Amino acid sequence: MYEQELIPHLFRTEFSKISSVLTKLFGIEHLEIAEDIASETFLTALETWPYQGIPGNPTAWLYTVAKNKTKNYLHRNKVFSEKIIPGIQTDSIEIFEIDFSEINTTDSVLQMLFTLCHPAIPTEAQIGLSLRILCGFGIDEIATAFLTTKDTINKRLFRARQKLREEKIQISLPSSTEIDQRLDTVLATLYLLFSEGYYSEDKEEVIREELCQEAMRLTFLLIENKQTNQPKVNALYALTCFHASRLPARKNSSGEIILYDQQDETLWDQELISKGVYYLHQASQGSSISKYHIEATIAYWHTIKADTKEKWESILQLYNQLLQIEYSPVAALNRTYALSKANGKEEAIREAEKLNLKDNHFYFVLLGELYTDLDNDKAREFFRRGIHLAKTESDKQVILKRVEAVNRLLKL
């Protein structure tokens, strides 16, 4: 049914706005109350829309219900009402204005994003809270993003909420001197959000476009604000544009991943590619280079389908630069693939085997690709190990097709 798709989509986009506006009204120490009201709003939608039909303006309906639930809460809790809204009288709550205008919701979300990334709480907790409150991530999803357990995440978020209450942190944009310090964590959160959408560990759905769109929306809020419109923000937005441009070509009709080499480039979104080029140019205005600049440039090269030596040599040098700025196993694996395209498989195999990422299925898939046509028995064994470690059915199916291709080569 349509509402089964619409409500999760609206939850991703509107939950953060409702909870941010209400938290700004109540204060950060009452964050849970704001979240509860926002959650009850969506629960009401789940209970009524299947029977009464979807409203003509679903977003406005949610805001109206959120306002009514807030006013009901203020009525029931007189002491709380008088504490957070000085001078309010019980009989005036009905006419009390709760501002869900576009300007206020945008400002509130942006302010909340920076509030949750306050240095009073650890960086991992900042990102976890942001993913939970502003991006609608479940505990399972956050645990997967951090490669840890649900119990660890629950404890981390509990301590972070407690710290925010104790410090009585104001919901506002930080001063100019603090912006840079917190902006890095904000960008890391949005990068994680986009990455989860672009390739999800969720066993049901590998690509989750609504998460990509939400990450891009929040990143663009930073660009629209003068204080946060910085080169690294533009670089991240360019990166997401380039990657998102290929989303229409990344799945087949059965929902299986289509690898880069097999993608139909006519399905790539040229408008998003052009937008990415524009914001990458805007990112070049600064004097420093972030990892987002380099990754965006790598992503730009991937919007050029031609398999040329110049392309792969450029990508290889960019990965060399990226690994100097910030090492990651994924970047190291991607660099090795670029090395194989630029300098040949033998050199890439030597570099790949140094990585020794025995718990990473992509590592064995890469080795399988590198050994294909050189030693097909080894290639098949590596692909099989990749299948054993793969978490999603879609990944397993993609690797299985590579095993079948190698089997055909062995029979020739």
Q: Please give the alpha-carbon distance between the first and last residues.
A: 49 Å
Q: Unreliable stretches, pLDDT < 50, 5 or more residues?
A: none
The tally of strands reads 0
Helix content: over 70%
Mind sketching the topology for me?
Layout lengths: L1 H25 L4 H22 L5 H19 L1 H7 L17 H15 L6 H11 L5 H7 L4 H18 L8 H23 L10 H16 L6 H15 L24 H14 L7 H11 L7 H17 L3 H15 L1 H11 L5 H11 L4 H14 L3 H19 L1
If you had to describe this structure to a student in words, what would you say it looks like?
- The chain starts with a helix and ends with a helix.
- It has 412 residues and is mostly helical.
- 70% of the residues lie in helices and 0% in strands.
- The chain has 19 helices and no strands.
- The radius of gyration is 24 Å and the shape is elongated.
Key structural traits:
single chain, 412 residues, mainly alpha, 19 helices, elongated
